[in-house]
Amino acid sequence: MRKLALLIIVVLLLLPKGIYAQDEPFDFERAYQDYVFTLDVYNGSHSEYLLARAQYKQAGTLVSQTKAQEATTKMLEARDDVVITYLTAIRMNLLEAEGVSETTKNSLFSRLDAEIAWFRDHKSRLASAGTLEDLKDDSTEAADRFNELTQTVAYETLATVPFGKLSLMRSRSSIILGDIENKISEIRVNNDKDTAIIERWAQEIENKITRSLDKEIEAQALIPGFTATSGGRTDYSKNFNAIIFKLDESRQFLRDATEFMREIVREVTTI
Questions:
Q1: Dihedral of CA 250/256/262/268: which sign?
Q2: Do residues 148 and 232 make contact, with C-beta atoms less than 8 angstroms apart?
Q3: Does residue 69 contact residue 132 with C-beta atoms inside 8 Å?
Q4: Domain assignments of the chain as residue spans, ordered by start
Q5: In 44-65, which positions are buried (b, 16+ CB within 10 angstroms) versus exposed (e)?
Q6: Helices (DSSP H) in 222-235: which residue ranges?
């Protein structure tokens, strides 16, 4: 859980943040601030839990046992809140993401909502635990859920958002290339200039855009890798980084294509 918590902090810190008013609508910014707040609350309750546990181990009295149980309950409730709020922040980030299909969004929304509902229910049951051993079992249950299901949908969602941005970038590049090719055809028909060289350049640009799509397809093929295999553990971070690496390669091909298109525009405008 700490690895994914760290990941979302890194990913979300890359996005702009500002101060919001209490009457502003709930959006990603608000969800992110809620996540930061609950993370602070959890850190505080975890420190209190460690102290109460140490005191109970040392004293072994009924009073220290009661305090340890209360502190453990509070800490586990805060931990569930952290999971709920960062899943909510991820959900809002996806909701506001451009370029991601509604089908993909709705599929991920359904899975995220299921995880949020599970942790809310888990939190509501913690106060009924009769002993510290019961709370230990509750903690293990939540940890297992997080490791086996929650991380999968969280990482899939975090990896999906860049696909949308890349898709929009490629779409814009293709539109511009189409305009350039139309202009080249016009120049060729009017015999304004020898277009052989710039036509080859246009073909190179098209190849760059195609290579970009190929890399995106390679990245997409890694998405199923987030699903834990039977009897094994999934290295979520490694798989996520591999996807981002492929998407960076895809983005670089589009950047190259953009630079080439600028060269063609300069060449065409010198006529």
A1: negative
A2: no
A3: yes
A4: 2-157, 167-268
A5: ebbebbeebbebbeeeeeeebb
A6: none
What is the Rg, in whole angstroms, of the alpha carbon atoms belonging to the chain? 26
Sign of CA dihedral 55, 57, 58, 64: positive
Q: Which residue type occupies 55? A: Q
Tell me the three state secondary structure of residue 60.
coil
Encoding tokens for residue 145? Answer: 């859920």
Burial of 71 (0-12, 13-18, 19+ CB in 10 A): buried
Tens-level pLDDT at each residue, the chain (271 residues): 555 554 554 444 434 344 344 556 788 999 999 999 999 999 999 999 999 999 999 999 999 999 999 999 999 999 999 999 999 999 999 999 999 999 999 999 999 999 999 999 999 999 999 899 999 999 999 999 998 899 999 999 999 999 999 999 999 999 999 999 998 898 888 888 888 888 999 999 999 999 999 999 999 999 988 885 544 567 888 999 999 999 999 999 999 999 999 988 888 776 5
- Report the C-alpha gap between 31 and 81 in whole angstroms: 12
What one-letter code names the amino acid at 47?
S
CA distance 215 to 256: 14
Separation between Cα atoms, residue 264 and residue 271, nearest integer Å: 12
